[in-house]
Every structure is written in C-alpha cells, then in structure tokens.
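User: Show me a protein chain along with its predicted structure.
Assistant: Here is one chain, sequence first, then structure tokens.
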Amino acid sequence: LNKVHERFVHTEKLAALGKLTGAIAHEFNNPVYGVRNVLEQISEVRLLTEEDKKLLALAVKECNRMADMVRKLRGFYKPSDGIVALLDIHQTLDDTILLMQKQLMMRKIRLNKNYAPALPKLMVVEAQMKQVFLNLLQNAEDAISTEGGTITVSTETPDGNTVKISIE
C-alpha cells in the first residue's frame, strides 16, 4: 500500500511539474525569440565590424540553444501519450543527462558517455524511456555517498539485434 501511495505521489508531482514546465516554457520562449529576432535585425546593419557580426551570430546561436533546452524540458515532462515509435536511444539519453547535468556538477560527479557507434533505433514509448533513464541516473547519483565520483553511461549491441544500456 505504501509503494502504491509513493507511486501515486510521484505521478502527481510529475503532473504538477509538467504543468509548471509548460508555463515556464511559454514564458521563456517568447522573450528568447524576441531577443533573437532583434539580434538578427541588428546583424543586417551594414556598419557593423566583423567582430560585431561574430558576436551577434554567437548571441543568436545561444538564443536558439536556450529555446531548444526549454523545448526538451517541456517535452520531457509532458504526459506520456503511450505511443510506441522508433527512437534514437542516444538522443534520449542525452536529453535526460541534460536535465541532470547541473545537479551532477554541483556534487562534482563526472559523467562519462561510452556510446556504441551505429546503435539501431528502438520501438519504445519515449516518455517511459526518459523516466527509466532519469530514475537510473538519480539512483547512480544517490549511490555516490561523497562529493565527487563518476557515472558512466554505456550502450552496446552485443549481437546486432539487442541493445544493452548500462548506467554505473
């Protein structure tokens, strides 16, 4: 009964976080895209030096990166649609790692990725895979009792048909 209650509370927290993430994404995306548009308009001015143009291009690139992070965060916490689709597991792992990155850095935990080249795409429910990876990464972080340590995420295809994912 306690485990069912814990799962229910966890599900409720994820739902609340999903709503909050959606609101935050909306609030962040509008100004980010506004700033990016202004920067792009400024970059069309002919009197800019090459250095100014490089700085503006970098600023636009960073705006795009922020918008992409917000999009990924929003996608991570939206309710699962339960649809099975072909998925790039490395991209799914990278999206999940991105969410854990700051937390790991604060605890001085290094994350190594040892990905197999040419890993086949898998037919899975994306939200469920992300949740599994997040839980495993959080468990790995919790297993490091002191400040500092290493978590290694590995993928391999032992026989070409099977995909093995390890988080140590």
